[in-house]
Design brief:
Elements (H helix, E strand, L loop, with lengths): L5 H9 L2 E3 L5 E3 L4 H4 L26 H6 L20 E3 L2 E3 L6 E5 L7 H14 L3 E5 L3 H16 L6 E5 L3 H7 L5 E4 L19 H6 L1 H18 L2 E7 L5 H7 L3 H17 L5 E6 L3 H18 L6 E2 L7 H16 L6 E2 L11 H14 L5 H9 L39 E5 L10 H7 L3 E3 L2 E3 L7 E3 L9 H12 L3 E5 H6 L5 E6 H6 L8 E8 L5 H5 L1 H4 L3 E4 L7 H14 L6 E7 L4 H11 L1 H4 L6 E6 L8 H14 L8 E4 L10 H12 L6 E5 L5 H4 L5 E7 L2 E6 L2 E8 H14 L20
Parallel strand pairs: 5-6, 5-12, 6-7, 7-8, 8-9, 9-10, 11-12, 13-16, 13-22, 16-17, 17-18, 18-19, 19-20, 20-21, 21-22, 23-24, 24-25
Antiparallel strand pairs: 1-2, 3-4, 14-15, 25-26, 26-27
Length: about 750
Amino acid sequence: MVQVTRQYAAAATALGLALSAEGFTVPRRQSSSSAAISSSSLDAYPTSASDVLWTPSWKSGARDEQLGPLGRYCEDLYSVRRRPTRTVTCGPVKFGSEHPIVRQTMATTDTANVDASIEQIMRCADEGFDLVRITVQGKREANAAMQIREGLFKKGYTIPLCADMHFQPKVAQLVAEAVEKIRINPGNFADGRKDFEDKVYESEADYVAERQYLFDAMVPLVETCKRLDRCMRIGTNHGSLSSRVLSYYGDTPRGMVESALEFADICRSQDYHNFVFSMKASNPLVMVQSYRLLASEMYRLDWDYPLHLGVTEAGEGEDGRMKSAVGIGTLLADGLGDTVRVSLTEDPEFEYKPCNRLSEMAEARLAAKNPGAKERQEAVRTYVDTRDVTSYARRVGDLPVTAADDKVDVGLFLNPNGSVISAVNPWMLSADSAPYLYKELGFKTAVGMPFKDVATSDSIFMRTLPEADKKDERTALRRMMEVGTGVIVPAEELERNPLDNTVALMSLEDAVKADGKIPDCAIRLAIEIDGSEDDETIAKVKDLNPLMVFISIADGLSQLHASRRIFEIFKSNDINTPAIHHFKTTSDDSNEIALGLGTKVGSLLTDGNGDGILIEQVGETANFSVDFVRNTGFSLLQGCRMRNTKTEFVSCPSCGRTLFDLQETTASITEATGHLPGVTIAVMGCIVNGPGEMADADFGYVGTTPGKVDLYYGKEIVRKGIKNEDAVGELVELIKSYDMWQDKEEEEVEEEVAVAA
């Protein structure tokens, strides 16, 4: 049982604190600042773990009993308002709700190479970043950090630096003399054991008894940071939870939060509050749930510390930007987050544009600053948000069933793991263009005939059809329909220009007026909902029994809140119709599409609300190919952990610890293994997050010493000390040994074949 000294207990009582039955001290809903024990209240700050006012136990139920159940996780469920926080100072930069979102990145140079590090940090500052993190592995890098700081000052750069610390409490104290911020990882700052062996705790008292060594490791750094007015980030990482936390809480968001709270309790026991939290994971769903859980805990504890947002090891290109947008954008959309880092396997300068753009999108949604955003949010009809953000459960719509008299396989029009619907124009179906369209839609072909593959569009959407006399175009459509591809067309177009076996799309209002009657040529109904409808009208979807609904929110409404309202009405009326998010874009920037899609639709899919995506390029010009748009849709579904259609890469963004050329190696691994849907491969430059991130991966490729890597299967090292030049080939052989390999398909050689119409 945790004991407190009489003196400390008396001070706790004076400050409005109470002792639980188990001996834990419990704050009675006070502010962050008043909860701390000040020097005027005590002769000295706590000097042992037994003296600390630990946050009440969650597992025993003491927290719920004494503070009440978890409540809100954001400031307002129905409009976008930043979560109010204290201001945390980091040199000239300030974190918090009263300040702009801070954009940051991480240097990839060897920190010991002072000149190279200075040059890269200056480039990052020139690009627009507010803060740069550097790797500090030991005393050599700590000394280099001092030289880097001095060198930047001499060149007129005041951009603050953050030292990234793992395993080295004493070095962290040393480097605090040089930099403005220290990032500590609760998973390995004091407890670097990463053996993943199950530890058995007979009681919670056994678990908390081990807090002393956390306290002993952490307090000297806290004292140093407090004395020097340094900032700290308590940065929990899903992939590097301590063996202690893993054994007690499991590999879970709850474990991430509880790990961070322990370290925060130590900071608070020393009346140190100049810190921020982060809850990073490579899985955006885990990341979002962890941050929401932490925010909810801070609300009931009356804590107001800022949040640093990031999806760790997001990867590169559009996929990396998509995963980052899904995770970061979802949280920013609810007003959570005060500083952002987009972790890409690219040079750090390239992280600025997506980082800045996500921040701009977040600022544009704030009701307090943007009258247009406020108007759109207030225009959404009243609803009650009943989401449980402490867990993830996907709403899965009822798949269509093929009837006995159907001439096509309606059951294949949608996929149970999430569907991609592609917008197609009539000119793409001509005799010359159709073979290319098949390929763009992801079909395999044999003697000119299309067949569905793992990443083929499930259905297509056409606003207009080829005219009845366009024999070649209609033949191309028929061939796709015969292999289970749905063709969705507005009902008015089908009335004008009939095509058998199609799905008729109608607005909800029109469908209600027509009592669900569809054109004679159509075999199913699809309904479009724009969010302006009243609750009673939306509830009529159940009786209309459409194949699917398109959620296409009207311009005058907040897309996020109007969509959430629709799903709440579906839930209260037991409507299980598959819901497809209809995303319209005029952008000619592929990164902008990834960021916008990940933020606007990903924020709904991370709640489990949605069964697929239709991306439609609107306007006079389509800026991207059908193939690009289709793959973007599948990237969204994969980023939201719905449907895997290609290899999933968990790839760290590189830093001074990296033991091989990460970008070049990642490219080689992608080239060799990128065709394995359902397989997840982690590519880690060093050991820090390596083994832990294996929890999210089937196979791991981890740098261990210069020129050598270890290969993992899950959390287990299976091949050690492989030379870099041999490692990709060894990885392929490892995948084969676990029967998860498939050979790449050769590119098809087009044959000219006469096929009867």
